[in-house]
Write a structure and sequence with these properties.
disordered C terminus; single chain; 490 residues; 21 helices; mainly alpha; Growth Hormone, Chain: A; disordered N terminus
Length: 490
């Protein structure tokens, strides 16, 4: 390695270049949070007597839940797009249907147009849900990766706050245009950054890979060494190019380093949805009306929830980077479960007249604690784990399969929420969410390893059931490289 390369200086530090790339992802994930939360203000405004579009209860539940079904189409498309078109192009293309969805929403004249706009948003969100952790992991250096992955949770919370704030201050059509602007800004930032180095290497574009890697990571000795490892691993692809795809995927499905992380991410995303992560922002106003017994203005209570979520998401970016993943996750689960059951208990006591009239607002306290708990642990950790737990060779396939559970549970939970609120009330619904959150937590307690501070090959060796000591590290790393070549190169 020449001194010219080793001591080459860049005017813009690598961290700022990585931050620029991640910022494009952050902006479209803010749009994702806005997509999820927007029904709360849209439906509230369309319930007014002078609304220009009239909706039935069935229309309302479909507008809130259709994202979940549309997500499936995006998630199914994402592995092919990420592999054939690349991370950068997939990120760019994902902004187009979401932009179109917001434009269509702003111009809607009936329920069918609103549903079409939500379908377009959901398709784009599906691409982004699969692409965001992959892109951030490949853009960023290992020392920054944890913090950058935690920005996904921050983006969700920011988008929900922004959607509710715009919806409170603006008419829903203008609010939709304002929310859609985040995707336009995201498209610009994504277009300013190069393709990720691992993707370029997997396609045999080694000169372009070197240029991209150095653009993101600089020219220091450690980075140059990592670059050579990446290139050398990809140059072995001719050895395995003739392997049948069907035979390859059958063998992958039997590998513990694939099916164990996939099972863990299934439970992670079920937990993510069953804890009410997307129900609360979609139905904040009616939920908080019942929690507060209408003693607090509906928009005020909605913004209270958003502010708590936003502040906690900022805290989570710090906590996730400092503490163990398991510690943060299970702390969040415990707080969430206790808060849900306590809120339900107070609501039952109030319904049966055991709570004095002057204290009828008290269920708000455990409800906000519930928002704190799930935002601290259940919101950020699944996305952080998704960027760490899969070996590079299986990342697209594993993310696609686990993402299907995210989409299906999104649709099921959000679609059934109105009927659940109507039949068993917020108190009964919270009991259900608390019980299922606890059950998922028990499974994850026994399944989820600690990944913080570990390299990908150490995590892979853990799932293979072999030691990660120095005497076998090279073997494990070599096998990982070959699997990367098989899937990414084939």
């Amino acid at each position: 390695m020449s001194d010219a390369v080793t001591h080459h200086k860049q005017r813009v530090p690598p961290f700022l270049r990585q931050l620029l790339a991640v910022s494009g992802i952050v902006l479209y994930m803010i749009g994702t949070g806005a997509n999820i939360a927007f029904p709360a203000v849209l439906l509230e405004q369309l319930r007014q007597p002078n609304a220009d579009i009239k909706l039935t209860t069935e229309h309302e539940s479909w507008i809130a839940s259709l994202l979940g079904l549309a997500l499936i189409s995006g998630i199914v498309t994402a592995p092919w797009s990420l592999q054939k078109l690349g991370r950068r192009t997939t990120n760019q293309l994902s902004c187009l249907p979401t932009l179109g969805g917001w434009a269509l929403l702003a111009a809607a004249r009936g329920p069918a147009t609103l549903l079409t706009s939500r379908a377009l948003q959901g398709f784009g969100m599906g691409l982004q849900a699969a692409s965001a952790p992959v892109s951030i992991a490949e853009y960023s250096a290992p020392k920054h990766r944890g913090a950058f992955l935690a920005t996904i949770a921050f983006s969700f919370a920011t988008g929900m706050l922004v959607a509710h704030l715009f919806g409170t201050l603006l008419y829903w059509r203008q609010a939709g245009i304002a929310c859609g602007a985040f995707y336009a800004l995201s498209l610009i930032l994504i277009s300013l950054t190069p393709e990720t180095p691992p993707y370029l290497a997997s396609k045999g574009l080694y000169a372009e890979c070197r240029k991209s890697f150095r653009w993101f990571r600089g020219y220091d000795y450690a980075s140059e060494k990592e670059l050579e490892v990446l290139l050398n691993s990809q140059k072995k692809q001719e050895i395995v190019k003739e392997m049948s795809k069907w035979v390859l995927y059958k063998s992958i499905l039997r590998k513990p380093e694939f099916y164990k992380p996939t099972l863990i991410m299934m439970f992670m995303f079920i937990l993510f949805q069953i804890s009410g992560m997307t129900v609360v922002p979609s139905y904040t106003v009616p939920m908080m009306n019942e929690v507060t017994a209408a003693s607090i203005d509906s928009y005020t209570s909605m913004l209270m929830v958003d502010v708590v979520r936003f502040i906690t998401a900022v805290l989570a970016c710090i906590v996730v980077n400092k503490l163990n993943r398991r510690t943060v996750l299970f702390l969040g689960i415990i707080i969430t479960v206790i808060s849900l059951f306590l809120t339900a208990l107070l609501l039952y006591l109030r319904d049966f007249g055991y709570l004095p009239h002057d204290y009828k607002w008290t269920p708000v306290i455990p409800t906000l604690t519930y928002i704190f708990g799930k935002t601290l642990g259940i919101l950020p950790i699944p996305w952080a784990i998704a960027g760490e737990i899969f070996p590079l060779a299986y990342r697209s396939l594993g993310s696609g399969i686990s993402g299907m559970f995210l989409s299906i549970m999104f649709f099921v939970v959000v679609k059934t929420a109105p009927n659940s609120f109507a039949s068993i009330g917020v108190s009964g619904t919270f009991c259900l969410y608390g019980a299922f959150t606890g059950i998922c937590g028990v499974f994850l307690y026994y399944l989820l390893p600690e990944t913080k501070g570990k390299t990908l090959y150490e995590i892979e060796c853990y799932f293979k059931g072999v030691s990660s000591e120095m005497k076998i590290e090279n073997t494990c790393e070599h096998e990982r490289m070959l699997e990367v070549v098989k899937v990414e190169g084939g």
